[in-house]
Amino acid sequence: MLLKLVIIEDDECSQIILENLLKTYFMDIALVGKARNVAEGIKLIHSTAPDLILADVPLGGETIFDLIKNLKNKEEYNFMITTAHENFALEAISHGVIDYILKPITLENLTLAINKFKRRLIAAQEREQLNAFDTSGNRLLGIAAVDKIEVLDIDAIVYIQADGRYTHFHLIDGTKKTASKNLGEYEKILPIQNFVRVHHSYMVNMNYVKSIQKTDGYFVQLFKSDKVIPIAKRKQEALIKFLKLKT
């Protein structure tokens, strides 16, 4: 999914610099329009509904803050200031601006700001999905990546595998879904009556556990999967308690 972006900037040179950087280095961002003043900016925002707005503060005889004050549903938009003026930072914060970049704009500071915005967007999507599905008896889980949100049936998850900052969900139909969130976060929200963290890198759905192998260490053998999952020594006691076994 492309993120839609508009530039509101009255200096043509600054417009060109931003446009060239975006088109050259940010393939997942679509520049959908440019404006030079408050009136053009409001019209452009309402017609394109951008995900992100890059704007200077002075816009002719007005400022970007005049635009924000006169914008309908202003809370739905994300403004990132790109300006040569340091003295507007506090006012920008009071108007809910998400970042403040001082000119001259470089690839490095633009990349840092846009990546921070993407992380913020993903986190908001995840919170929205988790809140929507967090109801009593609900068996759905929303997982977010940069380009989409997928909804999984919790009962279709056979096991979950950590991969650094990412998490892979292995499903009963043999497919794999990847989320841009670490395994520890899912350990907090998945039902403890079904899912057990048996290893730093693995959680298993106990409904699919066929046996516990105790040869040369402890391992989980699963139904619906050929995967044999190791059980860390420090996790063995918790698993034994879960299964109500005696050593």
Please tell me about this protein's structure:
The protein is elongated. The longest helix is centred in the middle third of the chain and has 27 residues, at 107-133. A hairpin with a 2-residue loop joins β13 (195-199) and β14 (202-205). It is an alpha/beta fold. The strands form five sheets. The chain has a five-stranded parallel sheet, sandwiched between helices. The chain has two domains: 3-124, Response regulator (Rossmann fold, 3-Layer(aba) Sandwich), CATH 3.40.50.2300; 136-242, LytTr DNA-binding domain (OB fold (Dihydrolipoamide Acetyltransferase, E2P)). It has helices at 12-25, 38-48, 64-69, 89-94, 107-133, 183-189, 233-242; strands spanning 3-8, 29-35, 52-55, 58-59, 62-63, 79-83, 99-102, 140-144, 149-153, 157-163, 166-171, 176-179, 195-199, 202-205, 209-213, 219-222, 228-230. The mean pLDDT is 88.
